Amino acid sequence: MAGGILEPPRRLTRDDDRASFDSGASELDDWFRRFAFENQQANNAVTYVTVRDGVALGYYAIAMSAYSIGRLPERMQKNRPAEMPCVLLARLAVDVTAQRQGVGAALLRHAMEQSYKVSEQVGAAALLIHCRDELAREFYLANGDFLSSPVEPMHLLLPMKEIRRRLSQ
Q1: Which of 158, 134, 163, 135 is nearest to 147 (CA)?
Q2: Candidates 48, 59, 60, 140; catalytic one
Q3: pLDDT digits over 74-85, tens only?
Q4: For residues 98 and 115, what is the distance between their CA atoms, to the nearest angstrom?
Q5: Contact residues for 101 (Cβ-Cβ < 8 A; gap 6+)
Q6: Which residues partner with 121 through β-bridges?
Q7: 3-class DSSP assignment, residue 67
Q8: Is the backbone of residue 122 left (phi > 0), alpha (psi -120 to 50) or beta?
Q9: Model-level pTM greater than 0.90?
Q10: Does residue 140 have an active-site annotation?
């Protein structure tokens, strides 16, 4: 990656340059440019960015969620309420100039760390992802021991116990 220093992920600020962000997925780009900061201000989701020279190269957004016990993999159903509390990885995208350079994997790891911290404060049993397409699903499966929902294969879950194990390595 040419250029300045790539900053570790941090919360999005109003001053972050998002105007030229282009991940190749227009709905992710548009949300980031137009709605990420607004959603953060409204406490709907928190967005974390990786920045170089003041320009956002990647982001993810997380929020609280719940997942129906009937949609969980069988091994996760024991001792759960009807709606299992989760942290939702709502979006993750990397600018085309930084793709295939580890930025996405670093953002996902940071999202796991943040999710685990949240789970210790409010209770959340898993990190939940609604994959936008098969390519995204492959990325998550290659970067974590995610479990697929038996009724919705594009929904992936990573138990907090697994995140704790990964973070302690």
Answers
A1: 158
A2: 140
A3: 889 888 989 999
A4: 24
A5: 1
A6: none
A7: strand
A8: alpha
A9: yes
A10: yes
